[in-house]
Amino acid sequence: MADELRRNPGTWTVLGEWRSLDGARLTARRIRNGYQVYAPKGAYEARAEATETGARVVARYVGEPPSRTKSQQPATPRVPSAPDGESARILDRIRRGEVLAGPEGARQIAAQHEAAYGAIVWAETNDDDAWAEAIAALSEDGAE
């Protein structure tokens, strides 16, 4: 459809029928934003229109938007080439083994927890049994 719209610039064309207005609006928004074959953003206008059976999308090609000058370009976010102070400190602690990280760190932490609390840390429990035990414990406390 994008090629057909390019061949007939400025002409509104029905692209299809949708069961919901939300689906049609999403498609129109994607076209306006330059999604896939409708790139670049702003080259097409599109809108969703409600119909008796759902909705339809109509669109037209309006041409490539003018290129931006250097002052109009969006600012490029600064990506640090080296970690900042806090990140560097944490990475150093990981390298020295002071902070456990990654799969080996997870294994070491799990082993420490099992040593401290026993196998109950990993025991599979039945939720019904846990509730029954909790209710029984409450009943025993209330009976006194």
Would you mind describing this structure in some detail?
With 144 residues, this protein is an alpha+beta fold. It has two domains: 2-61, no CATH class; 85-143, no CATH class. 43% of the residues lie in helices and 15% in strands. The chain has five helices and three strands, in the order αβαββααα. β2 and β3 (54-61) form a beta hairpin. The radius of gyration is 31 Å and the shape is elongated.
Which key phrases capture this entry?
144 residues; 3-stranded antiparallel sheet; elongated; 3 strands; alpha+beta
How would you briefly describe this protein structure?
By secondary structure, this protein is α+β, with helices and mostly antiparallel strands. The protein has helices at 2-7, 21-32, 85-95, 102-117, 127-143, and strands at 13-18, 44-51, 54-61.
Structural class: alpha+beta
The biggest beta sheet, please? 3 strands, antiparallel
Fraction of residues in β-strands: 15-25%
Work out the helix count. Answer: 5
The general outline is elongated
Strand order of the largest sheet: 1-3-2
Task: Give the C-alpha Rg.
Answer: 31 Å
Low-confidence stretches: none
| Count of domains | 2
Order of helices and strands: HEHEEHHH
Round the mean pLDDT to the nearest integer and report it.
Answer: 80
Distance between the termini: 79 Å
Strand segment count:
3
Helix content range of the residues, please?
Answer: 40-55%
